[in-house]
Amino acid sequence: MGSTQNVCGSTEARASGHSLQICLIFLTLSVVIEDRIFCVHGGLSPSVHCIDQIKAIDRFREIPHEGPMADLVWSDPDPDKEEFAISPRGAGYTFGAQVVKKFLNINDMHHILRAHQLCMEGFSVLYDDRLSTVWSAPNYCYRCGNMASILEIGPDGHKHFNVFDAAPENERDGPHQQMQLQQQQLQLQAIDGENPNAYPRPPQVEYFL
């Protein structure tokens, strides 16, 4: 919200911040790729043993401070642990190799893919290639000096991490210039009344996993 205020001012920031919060409420909690890879933002939960339990979670609300939804968003792997432990973040849990193995076996999955943790090399792979963390924000907060990555998964399940660095400072467009460009593009689309796809309707979502 702070960066939104810097770009738009307090009035616009409140309006855009509210719209953003609504969008976030509609994001999925997890995704399964090719019946092999379980994707989640944070990590696992001691309250969630099988993927079907995630379908029963009431997603359309703000993330609570505790419970399975909070765990999926806030939990982190810990190479020094085997089981679940209290997280120093104050929400979610840390979890170890045995937790990952059990979850993958129960759900007949091969890999867990997640984000949520800064990786100086852009990614990390833990627990004998059973879990990967992908971090896609280079030089986080403009001061961490970290690399970033985007993960590609081939048809055979092979994972390739595309690692990249932050753009040089003199080649970046500031957020104000980017927003101006987006507004100009939207104005041009609005003027062009003959374009029915200027504001396409979002696809209907039948269920959330």
Largest β-sheet summary: 5 strands, mixed
How many domains, in number, for the residues? 1
**SS-derived structural category:** alpha/beta
Going by CATH, the architecture would be 4-Layer Sandwich
GO molecular function, one term: metal ion binding
Keywords: Hydrolase, Manganese, Metal-binding
Domain Serine/threonine specific protein phosphatases: 4-168
Enzyme class: hydrolase
Write the layout of secondary structure elements.
Elements: H1 2-8, H2 10-25, E1 30-33, E2 37-40, H3 52-55, H4 68-74, E3 76-77, E4 85-86, E5 93-95, H5 97-107, E6 111-114, E7 123-126, E8 131-134, E9 148-153, E10 159-164, H6 175-191
Parallel strand pairs: 2-6, 3-5, 6-8
Antiparallel strand pairs: 1-2, 4-5, 7-8, 9-10
Helix pairs in contact: 1-2
Plain-language structure description:
The chain is an alpha/beta fold and 209 residues long. The chain has one domain (2-191): Purple Acid Phosphatase, chain A, domain 2. It has 6 helices and 10 strands. The chain has helices at 2-8, 10-25, 52-55, 68-74, 97-107, 175-191, and strands at residues 30-33, 37-40, 76-77, 85-86, 93-95, 111-114, 123-126, 131-134, 148-153, 159-164. The strands form 3 sheets. A 5-stranded mixed sheet has the order 1-2-6-8-7. Strand 1 and strand 2 form a beta hairpin. Helix 1 crosses helix 2 (10-25). It is globular and about 50 Å long.
Condensed summary:
This protein has a single domain, classed as Metallo-dependent phosphatases (Purple Acid Phosphatase, chain A, domain 2, 4-Layer Sandwich). Helices cover 30% and strands 19% of the residues.
